[in-house]
Amino acid sequence: MPTRQERIEGAIIGLLVGDALGVPYEFHPPEELPPLEQIEFDPPVGFHRAHQGVPPGTWSDDGAQALCLLASLLACGQFDAEDFGQRMLRWYEEGYYAVGNIVFDVGITTAKALRAIRAGTPALQAGPTGDYDNGNGSLMRVLPLALWHQGSDAELVRDAQLQSRVTHGHLRSQVCCALYCLWARRIMEEASDPWIAAVSTLREIYTHDEAATTELEWSIRPDDEPHGTGSGYVVDCLRSARLVMNAGSYEQVVKAAIALGHDTDTTACVAGGIAGLRDGIEAIPQRWRTRLRGMELVEGLIQQL
Ligand SMILES: [Mg+2]
Questions:
Q1: 92 near 111, Cβ under 8 Å?
Q2: How many whole angstroms from 104 Cα to the centroid of ligand 1?
Q3: Which residue in 25, 70, 111, 122 could disulfide with 264, CB within 3.0 to 4.6 Å?
Q4: Which residues surround ligand 1, an ion (CB under 5 A)?
Q5: What band does 136 get if pLDDT is binned at 50, 70 and 90?
Q6: For the domain that residue 27 is a member of, what is the CATH number?
Q7: Which distant-in-sequence residues (6+ apart) come within 8 Å of 45 by Cβ?
Q8: Cα of 207 to ligand 1 centre, how many Å?
Q9: Domain count within the chain
Q10: What is the residue range of 124's domain?
Q11: Residue 60 Cα, ligand 1 centroid: separation in angstroms?
Q12: Model-level pTM greater than 0.70?
C-alpha cells in the first residue's frame, strides 16, 4: 500500500501527467487515435497532433488551474473564493502556473467567468449557471481540495461546490465536484469500495437538499454501470473517469482515458489524479515523470501539503 505522502504526490503528478499526455490527442474521435501502446508524450509520426507548437510533456489549463487552487489553499489556510478567483485571473492573463507562462487553452465558460471577475463580479457569482454551462472546467481542477482538506465530509462538499461556482455555477457541476472530492477522500482512507462509499455519504449530506439530490440521482445517476464517452460534459467526464479506473495500472488508466477520444487531456487529468492517488507516485512511469515540464512550479507546493 502506498503511504499517504506517496498518494498525495501521486495524485498531483498523476493529474499533471494525465493532462500533458492527453494534450496532443485532444479533439480527435476515438477511431482516429493511435493504438494504446503508441499513446505517449510524442504521438506517432504522421499523427495530426492538437496544439502544435506545445512541447511534449506540457500540462494545459487543467493542470495550471489545479495548481492555482492548491496555491490558494496553502496561502489562505482555507478556501477563499476571492483569492482563488484572483489567481485564476492571473493564470488567464499572465500564465500563472502555466508552463513557461503560456496559456494555450481556455474553456468558454471559464473565460466568461474570469472576464466577469475582472470587471468586479464577486467570485462566487462569476460562474455562469445555464444548463449549457456544465462543461468539465471546475471538475478538472478540484482534486487538490480533497488532498488538502482536513474538515468534515460536509465541509469538503461545501468547499467543492464553492470552488466550482467561481467558473461553473450550475448545481450539476457543483455536485460533480463534490462527489469527485468524496471519492478521492474515500480512496485516501482505503475504503473497500470508495465510489459506493462516497455516493452513500453524499446522499446523507443532501438529505434535506432536494435540488442537489435531483442532480445526483437524475443527472449523475451514480448507481448506473460505469460508462462514458470522453466528452467535455461534466457528468460524462466524471463517469468516464470512473469507467477507465477499471483498466488497471496508472498507465493503463490514463491511456484508456485518452482512447475515449475528444476531451482527452481533461479525461486523463480527472482519471489520472484518482489513479495516482490510488496507486501512489511510484506507479507513475518514470519516463513520464522525468519528461513532465514545469516541475519547478510543483515541487514547493507538494512539500507544503
Ligand atoms: Mg486542457
A1: yes
A2: 9
A3: 25
A4: 60-62, 105, 265
A5: very high
A6: 1.10.4080.10
A7: none
A8: 34
A9: 1
A10: 4-46+56-304
A11: 5
A12: yes
Give the cell for residue 201.
455519504
50 CA from centroid of ligand 1 (Å): 11
Ligand 1 centroid from CA 206, angstroms: 31
Q: Which residue has the cell 495500472?
A: 249
The cell numbers describing 124, all together, are 462566487
- How far is the centre of ligand 1, averaged over its atoms, from the C-alpha of 126 (Å)? 20
In single-letter form, the type of residue at position 74 comes to L
**Arithmetic mean of pLDDT, 89-103:** 97
Query: How far does the centroid of ligand 1 lie from the alpha carbon of residue 106, in Å?
Result: 7
Residue 51 falls inside a structural domain: no
Alpha carbon of 196 to ligand 1 centroid (Å): 28
Categorize the per-residue pLDDT at 208 as very low, low, confident or very high, splitting at 50, 70 and 90: very high
